[in-house]
Amino acid sequence: MIIVTETTAEPRSPARVVRPVLPVAAADLADGMAFGALAASVGMGVLAPVAMSLLVFSGSAQYGAVAVIGQHGSIWAVVGAAAALNARYLLMGTTIAPALTGSAWSRAGTALLITDGSWAIAHRGDGRYDLRTLRVAGALCLCGWTAGTALGAILGDAIGDPGRLGLDAAYPVFFLGLLRSHLKDARAWFLAVLGVAAAAALVAWAPPGVPVLVAGAAGAVAGAALGVRR
Hints:
- This protein is mainly alpha-helical.
- The chain has helices spanning about 15-20, 20-40, 45-55, 60-70, 75-85, 90-95, 105-110, 115-120, 130-155, 155-160, 170-180, 185-200, 210-230; strands at about 5, 125, 130.
- It has two domains: about 5-170, no CATH class; about 180-230.
- It is built from 13 helices and three strands.
């Protein structure tokens, strides 16, 4: 059973709430700069990536979108890739929804602050989550991510070719990092290898973005089937 609380058993001071968030916000600042530079290098300019970071606020979806745009993929491939990469937020949102009160706008605002980082920091163990910490972490990470995107996009020309600094490898490394945290048993490894095989079979001839969608779908269907059997 998941229990989400506004406060923990022991009230936390503002300093205790902010302190563990700062490293994550700093990492989002650096990662946002890499994203901004990459977005500028594929022709998105400055305003578009900044608006995207402010409104979408999802590193995985935004990196995926830039990857597809860089390969001249269609708008449907961009939207499909972003939606597939963000599907996990449906489950995260359902666990926190019972604790949210207030207007629809208030609940939507809190939902927009849910990220992998803020979700992890707000976890108090035993299925409990602190909404105050979640909101503070999400807000600081949003500021860091958006400011980093702006800096990266503005300084993109000064930085030069992102490939020269290895920034073109940012989103593959980012995705590998996300994947590695889930490879905890044979089932997870099987699904990962299946996804890689599905993408590799299509990448040479399918439109950009399609291999990612097919790989994700193959992993989801196989995972559901294995789950039913278990």
